[in-house]
Amino acid sequence: FHAWSYDTAGSLVGVPKPEHFGEIDTECLGLRPLPAEERHGLLFVHPDPDGVLDLDALLGEWFNDEFPTWSFGDLIPINRDAYDTACNWKLAMDTFGETYHFSALHKDTLYNSFHGNVQCYDDDGHLHRMILCRRDIDEMRLLPEDEWDISIAGLPVYWIFPNVILMPFRFGCFLVRAYPTPDDPGRHVSRVDFYMKSALANAEGDEAIEVSEFIATVAQNFSEIIRDEDYVMGESQQIAANAGALDHIIFGRNEPALHHYHNTYASKLGEQPIPLVDAISTT
Question: pLDDT-derived band of residue 282, with 50, 70 and 90 as boundaries?
């Protein structure tokens, strides 16, 4: 507001017109430090100044072993977006947990590139990872196995508890973070960042133009699908939730990530796991 400036360590280094403002001790007025750690090319920051980061526990053996293979530290940012949405942040997380809805909600968009209602999924404690199935797998499966590429056949999806989705793809990565709106459980803000492999930035001439246009198109399409399709439906779901007429919802057998999301939330809150039913009764 007053154009005070700070260095990369958070120290106050510039105060306009100090003779007017008054004498101050700049060493006492730096930015409030937050616990932070860089690992696997990702920066983790705890929002509580007194919080403790334990990335061994947060990422577990799975992600700590697997994340280095994606070389996240070599990615460069290309774009970002934010969606202030009238739905709870957990509904936003649910969006990235199944492909059962692709043939209906995304019939003119994602469904053209992905097989719906099929995915590879596994979990361990509060971690889960899954792979969405691209239609390119239909041609790739005809190739020798040593020519298979997971980033062509599918889209890996990692859930970093509780509110982060990480999706590496052939040319870069999508990073989605959902933040609750204080004092309004029916709203949240999703922040989406787009990254591309740094090697692509070295392209020249027509290739550079082609790469740039492709990445921009991917980012734009992703944004429009999440904002204009998934989150519009999420807002509709929130209206139904706010009405209070429903005392429960049902997750299908083909939605294991949704079971895991909400059982993990319940576990962390000391609540009972979601009950399983063999059949849905109308009585």
Answer: low
